[in-house]
User: Fold these one by one.
Assistant:
Number 1:
Amino acid sequence: MAQCPCGLAREYTQCCGRYHAGALHLQSPTPEALMRSRYSAYALRLGDYVLDTWHESTTPEHMARFESGVKWLGLTVERAWTTSPDEGFVEFVARSKAPGGGPAQRLEELSRFVRVDARWQYVDAVPTAQSSS
């Protein structure tokens, strides 16, 4: 059985795969669980899942990352927390490699999530002091 791309050292079907397989993504228990399943969806090129879990106010019309051929190499969640029952944050590092070689790259992000009708959704990346320097 294949290991889940999210980095939790679990079998995919018992980890993020259960969210990708159907309506369970509507009930991700935490912002971190949703973020991990979104990372796995990027790694597996499951664009519909990524769009379905994006808050309607910030959903892009076009997903260039799926067409770019980027290979996702790994995910590290630095920390995750909620500020209320309906807002949460996940700070993470995702590593990737562009098609055709070159050095690996790091995406460091602090993501904001909100819960709407009992459903966690990705809203946006929050600027941090580190990212603005």
Number 2:
Amino acid sequence: MGWTAEQQNRLQRELNILNPYFPSFNYVNVGTNLCLEGWMKTNSNNNYKIRLYVPSDIPYSVPDAVIVHPDPATDYYGRNLTSLGASATMHLLSPRDFLPKICHYRPANWNSNVTFYKVLIKVRIWLEALDGHKRTGQAMDYYLTHQQEV
């Protein structure tokens, strides 16, 4: 994909912002998509590999965030998260590339000033909620609230 000079600058700024806080995240090509991938460790010492799909119109669209590892990512009952499809109570969107897609920003709440750092902070909170769900069986709604449209 051909990125404009403005987009290339934004992609570099995103990495500069992430580096101190999420140093394992780097750009990778997945098929024809530019993605940002890296590892997160939760407070329960669980390791998750996360992928953000860089939107072709960066910074104007919400990037999709998926769990790459563990594969499959499972819930309290051992079900593959992708089998749940889009689930409001589990804060999941329809899977992407057969991977569970995390709900992190409503498109109506997105603006071009939101950075990948902010997305990854929300993903990290989501992962902590997943760990809580896997310990207790409580739906993700128990740990997370739904965003209101602004």
Number 3:
Amino acid sequence: MDRLPSLKAVHYFDTAVRHQSFTAAAQALHVTQSAVSRMIQTLESELGVALFTRQGRLITLTPAGEVFARKSRQAIDLIAQ
């Protein structure tokens, strides 16, 4: 990867992980579910890896998504400090 992914996309991803739902993440972020879904798709495209598996409304992290969730949460916590 030549450049960092969008921090906004990482924030949407982190919110979706915490809420385990794109719809709940959208409500928490005050945006549409479609906006969250598009942002996650963009992030997956930038990273070149699927972060979630989608089965209807159910989302689960892929193994790569689990690693990215853990690392991005550490980075967010570090920035917050």
Number 4:
Amino acid sequence: PMANGESLYGAIKEGKEYAADWTHPFGTRLRVCNKSNGRCTIVHISDRGPSKKLKRVIDLSKKSFSKIADTKQGIIQVTVENV
């Protein structure tokens, strides 16, 4: 299960767009935009992470990431705002 109690596999199977973040409450909807191409996606926070020692802002699900960048990139610069 994810930190909010939802099943990770259930969220993937249902095609949910979710993300992990330490600073927003569970259920918060965020617009995440790729700085290099301007593409955006809206996700809901359902998990905690990424690892604080990695100094990353947010960790997107594969489906969410694929909407704003090629998944082969792995790490990109984004903006994050509340919806």
